[in-house]
Design a protein that fits this description.
- The chain is an all-alpha fold and 171 residues long.
- It contains six helices and no strands.
- The chain has one domain.
- Helix content is 69%, strand content 0%.
- The longest helix is centred in the middle third of the chain and has 32 residues.
- It is elongated.
- The chain starts with a helix and ends in a 15-residue tail after the last helix.
- The C terminus is likely disordered.
């Protein structure tokens, strides 16, 4: 597969977030210019921007998970041995994985139930907005599943300090 295509799919969430944030910027910029210079605001601009931001939020959560950038408090965990930290980290990842499955399933049900309800300005089905939750969870499950698979392999090999988010002793 072409290197650019692989890079695109490896960073798909980031690409979509950049596109959506750029759209939000230009939609709101155009809205402000039309409102204050010409007295003709765009009636749907705030709604579209809000819905795009919802998508950026859930896809951005996936990006943060993929980069292991979510905030963690590891004070008490630092008192454990590296081996027990590895087991605890794997257990937490498995619990988060199960939670994401549950929330994703419930989010998909909500998105499907709201297909017949339309948004105020655009008349879009609310499914387009609520679909951000299961979509974001899908990408988070892929990233977290990959981390869990790698970490199980490292634990089996005894490489407890090689896991994806183990705190270094010197910190």
């Amino acid at each position: 597969m072409n290197k650019r295509v692989r890079l695109f799919f490896a960073n798909f969430e980031e690409v979509v977030c950049v596109i959506l944030l750029t759209c939000i910027y230009f939609i709101l910029l155009t809205h402000v210019i039309l409102r204050y210079l010409f007295g003709r605001p765009i009636p749907w601009s705030e709604e579209v921007s809000r819905y795009f931001f919802v998508w950026v939020t859930f896809l951005g959560a996936s990006v943060a998970l993929k980069r292991r950038a979510h905030v963690t408090v590891e004070y008490f965990v630092s008192f454990l041995s590296v081996r027990w930290r590895a087991y605890l980290k794997l257990g937490i990842d498995l619990a988060v994985f199960a939670f994401l499955i549950l929330v994703g399933r419930l989010g998909a049900e909500l998105a499907l139930k709201t297909y017949t309800i339309e948004t105020a300005a655009l008349g879009w089905p609310w499914t387009y907005v609520y679909g951000a939750l299961p979509a974001g969870n899908f990408f988070m499950l892929i990233a977290l599943g990959r981390f869990i698979w790698q970490d199980i392999g490292k634990i089996r090999q005894g490489q407890y300090d090689q896991l994806s988010s183990i705190v270094d002793e010197s910190i």
